[in-house]
Write a structure and sequence with these properties.
With 249 residues, the protein is of the alpha/beta class. It has one domain (28-156, 173-239). It contains six helices and eleven strands. The chain has helices spanning 6-24, 59-64, 80-89, 103-112, 136-144, 192-219, and strands spanning 28-33, 49-52, 70-74, 93-96, 118-121, 148-155, 159-160, 168-169, 175-180, 226-231, 234-239. The strands form two sheets. A nine-stranded mixed β-sheet has the order 4-3-5-2-6-9-1-11-10, sandwiched between helices. Strands 7-8 form a two-stranded antiparallel sheet. Helix 1 crosses helix 3 (80-89). The radius of gyration is 17 Å and the shape is globular.
């Protein structure tokens, strides 16, 4: 039975937000940027891009980049209701729609916005398959003429829910790592072949970034180019360089 009572969702959202902040606050988060100027936490009018990350890692941006200039695109599925409540309580905007339901309406909402900032999308949600990028975000990037930025997330031996996406829950006091790519421009008015080309490209690159972040979290080894930045609930090391060749082209 679908619950439609707004008081229930607001109360549940508040409790979930408090739990998220306390739980994720126990994680040792560090980040690496292919371009240090690209970060949803930096309030800048120049930041206009579509941020893609896998559905299983949605807890990370909800926690680390709250109160940023971000609009999350969420499905019209009932399970997304709690995510919407957490996002709004975390200072983000939300637009409902997906490749399956409400996609056209969502695009129209974005087109009506006077200034698109950062649009966050889980490109394999809400039904999966896991880590298979849908063509919808590529179409949106082409239509809105916004570049794409990829976010790979990894945890050290996380717990996994037996869901289609194997949803990741980091263990308390474990390591969490995320890697943000540079901007990928997407041509306007892409045809079917063009959409599929960029869909495959972003799927491959996002998988590589996620694998890198997971390996980094598991090893616990530092990267080159360390710089201390106060971000989120505590001071954390932010990395702006690599000791190995980049996998992104």
């Amino acid at each position: 039975m679908k619950i439609t009572n707004p008081i229930f969702w607001k109360t549940t959202g508040l409790l979930a937000t408090m739990l998220l902040r306390n739980w994720m606050g126990l994680i040792d988060f560090k980040a690496a940027f292919y371009d240090p100027g690209i970060d949803p936490a930096f309030q800048s009018e120049k930041q206009h891009f579509i941020l893609l990350f896998w559905h299983e890692h949605i807890l990370c941006p909800l926690f680390l980049r709250r109160h940023s200039d971000v609009t999350m695109m969420l499905s019209q599925h009932g399970d997304a209701e709690i995510v919407e409540q957490i996002a709004r309580l975390s200072g983000m905007r939300c637009v409902r729609g997906s490749s399956f339901r409400g996609g056209t309406a969502a695009v129209k909402q974005f087109l009506k916005m006077t200034s698109q900032s950062i649009i966050a999308i889980t490109p394999d949600g809400p039904r999966g398959p896991r880590r298979k990028l849908a063509v919808g975000p590529v179409f949106l990037a082409s239509k809105l003429q916004m570049p794409v930025v990829l976010l790979g997330v990894g945890y050290d031996r996380p717990w996994r829910i037996r869901s289609w996406d194997r949803f990741a829950i980091p263990r308390p006091f474990s390591r969490g790592r995320f890697i943000i790519s540079h901007q990928f421009p997407v041509p306007a008015n892409l045809n079917k072949d063009g959409l599929e080309f960029f869909r495959q490209k972003f799927e491959t690159q996002l998988t590589c970034l996620t694998d890198e972040a997971e390996q980094w979290a598991t090893s616990g080894e530092p990267l080159l180019g360390e710089s201390i930045v106060c971000s989120g609930p505590k001071c954390s090391l932010m990395y702006y360089g690599y000791s190995k060749p980049a996998t992104i082209r």
